[in-house]
């Protein structure tokens, strides 16, 4: 059973319940979620985006830091998931849940915060970075910490992670969100 916990916004708990009800187990961790809320709060008038809404857990964390003058747009290709997530935010017209491919986000760019968690992350890093405003923050989670440089995953150099960490347009770093999980946080240079 999912219990409300101190410091966990009620809307996150609602989205976590929706995820559990839908059998959706890919929602972001609470540790990564706190990072999302912090990033959204850093851009109080910003355009905040997410690819891969899932059941809206990450969206709810982004929402937890959403300024009164900010907007949040998220996209999910699975219609049922998108519909369920839209219900979690139906009372807040700052939030739009789109149904379709992540490239729908292009119409809403540039982004001051982009949590790239569905389409784009693996198949088009360059296209993802293009959607960032100068000074915009990119967050990618679900990496496995590596003590090596260049970072390795399952015995091989992790080319995807390397591409983000060394991209000339980005100032990027990797942080632990749990002992066995990490996230990349990057800012698009001016
Ligand atoms: C890791 S889950 C998202 C979890 C969610 N962001 C959260 O933090 O709770 C990835 C989601 O991306 C969606 N997805 C995958 N490829 C996509 C694409 N090309 N366009 C839109 N959504 C996509 C999947 O259907 C899945 O729901």
What integer is the average pLDDT? 96
Biggest sheet: strand arrangement: 3-2-1-4-5-9-8
Bound molecules: S-adenosylmethionine
| Secondary structure: number of strands | 9
Strand content: 25-35%
The low-confidence parts are: none
Largest sheet: 7 strands, mixed
Give the helix proportion (percent range).
25-40%
Determine Rg (CA atoms, Å): 16 Å
Q: What's the N-to-C terminus distance?
A: 45 Å
How would you characterize this protein structure?
The chain has 190 residues and is α/β, with parallel strands linked by helices. The protein has one domain (10-188): Vaccinia Virus protein VP39 (Rossmann fold, 3-Layer(aba) Sandwich). 30% of the residues lie in helices and 29% in strands. The protein has helices at 10-22, 30-41, 57-64, 79-88, 125-130, 159-166, and strands at 47-51, 71-76, 95-99, 111-116, 132-143, 152-153, 156-157, 170-178, 181-188. The strands form two sheets. A seven-stranded mixed β-sheet has the order 3-2-1-4-5-9-8, sandwiched between helices. Strand 2 (71-76), helix 4 and strand 3 form a beta-alpha-beta unit. The relative contact order is 0.15. S-adenosylmethionine is lined by residues 26-28, 50-52, 54, 57-58, 75-78, 81, 101-102, 117-119.
Tags for this entry?
Rossmann fold; alpha/beta; single chain; 190 residues
Concise account of the structure shown:
The protein is α/β, with parallel strands linked by helices and about 190 residues long. The chain is about 30% helix and about 30% strand.
């Amino acid at each position: 059973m999912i219990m409300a916990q101190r410091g966990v916004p009620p809307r996150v708990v609602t989205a976590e319940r929706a995820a559990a009800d839908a059998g959706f187990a890919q929602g972001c961790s609470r540790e990564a979620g706190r990072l999302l809320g912090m990033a959204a709060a850093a851009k109080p008038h910003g355009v905040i985006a997410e690819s891969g809404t899932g059941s809206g857990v990450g969206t709810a964390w982004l929402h937890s830091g959403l300024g009164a003058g900010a907007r949040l747009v998220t996209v999910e290709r699975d219609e049922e998931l998108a519909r369920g997530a839209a219900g979690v935010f139906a009372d807040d017209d700052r939030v739009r849940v789109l149904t379709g491919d992540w490239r729908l986000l292009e119409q809403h760019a540039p982004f001051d915060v982009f949590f790239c968690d569905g389409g784009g992350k693996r198949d088009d890093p360059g296209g993802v970075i293009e959607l960032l405003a100068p000074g915009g923050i990119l967050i990618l989670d679900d990496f496995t910490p590596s003590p090596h440089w260049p970072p390795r995953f399952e015995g091989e150099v992790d080319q995807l992670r390397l591409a983000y960490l060394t991209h000339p347009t980005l100032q990027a770093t990797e942080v632990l969100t749990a002992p066995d999980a990490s996230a990349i946080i990057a800012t698009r240079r001016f």
